[in-house]
Amino acid sequence: MTIPRGGAPAPKYQRLAADLRRRIEAGEWQGGAQLPVEGDLEQHYGVARNTVRLAVDVLVNEGRLVRMQGKGTYLKQQPVFDHRAYLAARLPGQRDALAAPSEVYTREARTAGRRLTVDFDMLVVRARPDVAQRLGLPPDDAVVVRRQLRLLDREPYSIEESHYRAGLAAGTPLMDPEPAPGGDEQVLAAMGRSETSAVDHLAARMPGPEEAAWFEIGPGVPLLVQTRVTHDRRGPVRVIETRYAADRCRLVYEVGEGREPGPRP
Amino acid sequence: MTIPRGGAPAPKYQRLAADLRRRIEAGEWQGGAQLPVEGDLEQHYGVARNTVRLAVDVLVNEGRLVRMQGKGTYLKQQPVFDHRAYLAARLPGQRDALAAPSEVYTREARTAGRRLTVDFDMLVVRARPDVAQRLGLPPDDAVVVRRQLRLLDREPYSIEESHYRAGLAAGTPLMDPEPAPGGDEQVLAAMGRSETSAVDHLAARMPGPEEAAWFEIGPGVPLLVQTRVTHDRRGPVRVIETRYAADRCRLVYEVGEGREPGPRP
DNA sequence: AAGTGGTCTAGACCACGGG
DNA sequence: CCGTGGTCTAGACCACTTC
Predict the structure, then answer these.
(1) What is the rounded end-to-end Cα distance, in angstroms, of chain B?
(2) DSSP letter string over B103-141?
(3) Is 0.90 topped by the overall pTM?
(4) How sure is the predictor about A259, in pLDDT bands with cuts at 50, 70 and 90?
(5) Which of A146, B55, B220, B228 could cysteine-pair with B13, CB 3.0–4.6 Å?
(6) Strand C nucleotides within a 7 Å radius of protein CB atoms
């Protein structure tokens, strides 16, 4: 279970990190408590400050600690919000089973005692290769992207982007740079393109610099990425890519008579 | 989109990281190519070696680079394997819709031209708080954990753990320290506890040290964690937690007549 | 002003991989 | 053996937060 080392002891900073991890798991500091300052750790363990920083780096990159300049280093503690992924397989006839207007999410959040706000924008760009492929387009074809930037209690929460074939969106309210009343689903329904099926791909990866900046997340927090391709009988309708800061939510999929005993502590 | 700074320029190592990121995205190095060695970067940019290392740290933690001691620093490139999550809502009557014996996964891998091998073990432990809650047990109650360690082409791939109430598993083949022929589903069916519904929670987080060691992943690679609670009419049956190295697979959920145009490049 | 983390340098030695 | 990345030290100054 350990990486082989030629008899050599583990490096100081790793042993230091392991000891801090042990103390954290032993509950030596609770909640969002402050850890000893770097100078104290330096003295306590008898190492150079750089070594202390290397050790703390490890725990920061594991998502256990956060550093705040001028204040200190703290235990991370984040509430997690369960976000229902609308696959809702038991409601096959229902139109909003595959996607839902933002009102649904706003209501879901309010039920959980949280406040969800949404910024909207629309842009026309060349399709990413994977989006082009999923929509059955030639590479670099233009797509209309309708984007929702969601904040939960003022905190950046998710970025949802719907990608439409330019030809499909042209001349429809999908070109409007504002949310469609009732959601894009309403618009698609009026065009006779109600979505009847979907495939979701779930992935996780570290954020790039822009994503880290927008989400206001530091090292150690991955993104959870949901890529949904919806279809109607004529073919693919849109690609919906939603990115979540993984320390702020989980996605929930249900099937059958699924009951959920309650949130995870 | 940028973190505010009081007129001060970004630190050297961040500018260096940004420049390397730009060069990477510009395609200056392809595939798994080797980057210039630290000494060269030090000279080229006119900074101390530590500053070079801080910059490379950033890109390693973003999952873009891997460092190999004694060899060099390389662009990361990983094939991604799509793993079908067995929700299969369109086959409501089918018993293996909520879980499947490992043969199913082995076959799925072989279809993709990959080889899946599985190690199995069984242990009895105190339930984690979240598992106890989902199974409706008092905290610290004993649970039987049946664990499958999966390798894809010899590479660590996933850890799947089924947690059963001790009382449910007692005196059944679920206590055997080996895989049940036909899967645990077969055993449950014989006990009259066929699973009819499930709730999945999807999360992402960074691995702890043991997980990083087992998966042989370095910094910058999160885990994708699927937590499935299955039910029959009498209540919760088991908690299945599956952890994946996120650079090696994605999870796929389908509903309706879902068609998938093909894998992402 | 004092205390915290953030950045940076210069130099040293070690461990690993491959010729 | 050499070149690579890995670890560690000592010390300096900066930027931010709090009082």
Answers:
(1) 29
(2) HHHHHHHHHTT--EEEEEEEEEEEPPHHHHHHHT--TT-
(3) no
(4) very low
(5) B55
(6) 3-12, 14-18
Percent composition of chain A: helix, strand, coil (DSSP 3-state, to 5):
30, 30, 40
Look up residue A83 and give its two tokens. Answer: 């976000």
pLDDT at residue B139, rounded to an integer: 83
Closest by CA to B239, choosing from B168, B175, B147, B163, is: B163
> What pairs with residue B122 in β-bridges?
B146
Domains and CATH numbers, chain A: 12-75 (1.10.10.10), 81-252 (3.40.1410.10)
> CA angle at residue B182 from B258 to B195, to 5 degrees?
60
Burial status of residue A139 (CB atoms within 10 A of its CB: 0-12, 13-18, 19 or more): exposed
- For chain B residues 21-60, those near strand C by a CB cutoff of 7 A are 46-51, 54
pLDDT < 50 positions in chain B: 1-7, 88-96, 257-265
Strand order in the sheet with B116-126: A81-84, A249-255, B197-205, B223-232, B235-245, B155-165, B142-152, B116-126
Q: Which DSSP symbol is given to A152? A: E
CA–CA gap between residue A13 and residue A42 (Å, rounded) = 11
How does strand A249-255 pair with strand B223-232?
Answer: unpaired
Q: How far apart are CA B137 and CA B143, in angstroms?
A: 9
Q: Return the residue matching tokens 């600690």.
A: A65
Tell me, in Å, how far CA of A20 is from C1' of C13? Answer: 26
Strand D CB shell (< 7 Å):
A 11-14, 46-51, 54, 68-71; B 5-6, 8, 35, 37-40, 49-50, 53, 67-73
Sign of CA dihedral A57, A226, B242, B179: negative
pLDDT digits (tens, 9 = 90+) for A3-20: 444 455 789 999 999 999
What's the whole-number average pLDDT of chain A? Answer: 85
pLDDT digits (tens, 9 = 90+) for A110-160: 888 888 899 999 999 999 989 999 999 998 899 999 999 999 888 898 999
Contact A252 B201 (CB under 8 A): yes
The C-alpha atoms of residue B264 and residue B251 are separated, in whole angstroms, by 13
Question: What count of CB pairs under 8 Å joins A to B?
Answer: 193
Closest CA to A160 of A89, A238, A64: A238
Cα–Cα distance between A223 and A243 in angstroms, integer? 6
Between CA A164 and CA A199 the distance in angstroms is 16
pLDDT digits 0-9 by tens, B40-84 = 999 999 999 999 999 999 999 999 999 999 999 999 987 778 877
By CB atoms closer than 10 A (0-12, 13-18, 19+), residue B207 is: buried
